[in-house]
Amino acid sequence: MQPEIDTYCLSHSTPEPELLQALSRETHLRMVQPRMLSCWQQGLLLQQLAKLAKSKTMLEIGTFTGYSALCLAAALPPNGVLHTYDVDDEALEVAQAFFAQSPQAAQVRVHHQSALEGAPLLKETFDFVFIDGDKREYPDYYRMALNLTPSGGLIVADNVLWSGKILAAPLAGDRHTRALQEFNEMVRSDSAVEKIMLPLRDGLTLIRKK
Ligand SMILES: C[S@@+](CC[C@H](N)C(=O)[O-])C[C@H]1O[C@@H](n2cnc3c(N)ncnc32)[C@H](O)[C@@H]1O
Question: How far does residue 84's CA lie from ligand 1's centre (Å)?
């Protein structure tokens, strides 16, 4: 049933803009791991959340080719800004080309740097943080995001189910699963936040700082 349900849900949602369809095609042609790209269902959810939260200053950890960044940027008010970080030259080249074609081009600040190094130096707070970088760094991203988010701010983390691997003890040397389990436990036991883990695609946790 799931593929049919997904198709039905998508056909009853806002359609994917042409620019994002083109970005998805380009990513599949040029990138070695196109599956890192967000899907439209997830991008649209991020966009709706950011609009509902009236987020003005956003931080994205993990730009890749810019799909989720474009979804988030489309939710910004005219004076809003999205800072997005990545360490991959080739992915950022694709992202920059597509940001340039977006109506929000001037509102997207691309940083070719680890978010862990760069974001604290901006000396800003972010009312929306999207965590989607290296899974082994999720616990560090979370500590940083909590420091950079005001009360009421929203933190969203992708891949929290890690294709279901999260349910079992990780194999020796599997640092990705281990770090995601640590991150999930940090969020679960953190009484300073309200949270919901959703089984959307590879798992998405929505975290609101009290
Ligand atoms: C899953 S992809 C991001 C996908 C993108 N958010 C989207 O939805 O289309 C993860 C990206 O995180 C980047 N990354 C890894 N470590 C990072 C770090 N410390 N800071 C920022 N980005 C990082 C990787 O280079 C990769 O492009």
Answer: 9
